Amino acid sequence: MAAAPEKIRELVALLVDRVETVDRAVARVIWTPPARPFFLAAAAEAAERGVLGVAPPDGFEPPTPALGRLRSIH
């Protein structure tokens, strides 16, 4: 079951402080302070395993220094 657009906006507001773009593509996601530890931990784990990034089951890839691109969350 998909979430209603209003609920998606609420969730994004809890996790994302701002998104920086370059040429209409996501260049960087700035996480809110409560969300930041999760994404930093995921990036550290990915670096230890030598993978480009960690993709949770929903397919959203947290930004990591080694990650070449980000996929849209909608």
Please tell me the overall pLDDT. Answer: 75
What is the strand content? 15-25%
Structural class: alpha+beta
Total individual domains: 1
Helix coverage percent of residues? Answer: 25-40%
Notable traits:
alpha+beta, two-stranded antiparallel sheet, 2 helices, extended, single chain, 19% strand
Question: What's this entry about, in short?
Answer:
By secondary structure, the protein is an alpha+beta fold.
What does this structure look like?
This protein is α+β, with helices and mostly antiparallel strands and 74 residues long. The protein has one domain. Helix content is 34%, strand content 19%. It has helices at 5-15, 36-49; strands at residues 16-22, 25-31. A two-stranded antiparallel sheet has the order 1-2. A hairpin with a 2-residue loop joins strand 1 (16-22) and strand 2 (25-31). The two termini are 14 Å apart. The relative contact order is 0.14. The mean pLDDT is 75.
Compile the SSE list and pairings.
Elements: H1 5-15, E1 16-22, E2 25-31, H2 36-49
Antiparallel strand pairs: 1-2
